[in-house]
Amino acid sequence: MATTHSTRTARHTNVQKAALAVGAVFLLVGVLGFVPGITANYDQLQFAGHQSEAMLLGLFQVSVLHNIVHLLFGAAGIALSRSAAGSKSFLLYGGIIYLVLWVYGIMVDQESAGNFVPLNAFDNYLHLVLGVAMIALSVILTKGRSSRAR
What we know:
Blueprint: H1 2-10, H2 14-32, E1 39-40, E2 55-56, E3 60-61, H3 64-80, H4 84-107, H5 121-140
Antiparallel strand pairs: 1-2, 2-3
Helix pairs in contact: 2-3, 2-4, 3-4, 4-5
């Protein structure tokens, strides 16, 4: 009986694996945003706002707030990956959040106070890709499974 229990807890669905991987990547990106060298212009990292000139991998404009959001998003993905339903929700609603961020990013003037995260063109394209990919993962990896499935 213990073998059945350990086998059952050791198996993870594909959607759980995807949520765990996505969460781990977000956590890693959040940490890397605080690493000089990986983040160019690290000495110009601001708490928030478009004045932050720090650039993760030299491409993505980041701030302390932006990095914290990545860390929290990553922690949420890892925590929600414990169940298939939580994993699906993380990927689906997280994907929707990233699509909303994409729309916000293309609509807000990058030099305005409204660009408080901050976001640049590379962030915007990445948010579009992330949003679509996360939603696709949530749908494809749970297709044909009931919402009560592990």
